[in-house]
Amino acid sequence: MNLDYLRTFVAAAEVSSFTQAARRVHLTQSAVSQQMRELENRLGVALFERRGRSLLLSPAGECLRPLALRVLGAYKELEHELSVFKGIPQG
Questions:
Q1: Are 40 and 26 in contact (CB under 8 A)?
Q2: Which of 48, 50, 49 lies closest to 65 in space, CA to CA?
Q3: What integer pLDDT is reported at residue 86 of this predicted model?
Q4: Is 50 helix (H, G, I), strand (E, B) or coil?
Q5: pTM, 2 dp
Q6: Residue 79 CB: number of other CB atoms within 10 A?
Q7: How is residue 45 annotated by DSSP?
Q8: What DSSP state is assigned to residue 53?
Q9: Where would I find the beta strands (DSSP E) of the chain?
Q10: Residue 34 zone, left/alpha/beta (φ > 0; ψ -120 to 50; rest)
Q11: Sign (positive/negative) of CA torsion 73, 1, 57, 63?
Q12: pLDDT tens digits, residue range 21-80?
């Protein structure tokens, strides 16, 4: 699983829009759509329900969101812990 895809998923879930998520993660809207399509294909579930211009989390998306936040938080913690060994101060 790609951490960037999880970051993009969380951004889209927070703003309910691929366009706004694209701005947050510094991608194009089409790149966000492609990442979410690939993530859905990899997981084998729909993560969003598209209703016209509205974007809602599906039940699977609702399930993934807190898990994705935990994974991303754990990765950030890992980076911080390893920075101690590198002697790189973290903000």
A1: no
A2: 48
A3: 77
A4: strand
A5: 0.87
A6: 12
A7: S
A8: T
A9: 48-51, 54-57
A10: alpha
A11: negative
A12: 999 999 999 999 999 999 999 999 999 998 887 899 999 999 999 999 999 999 999 988
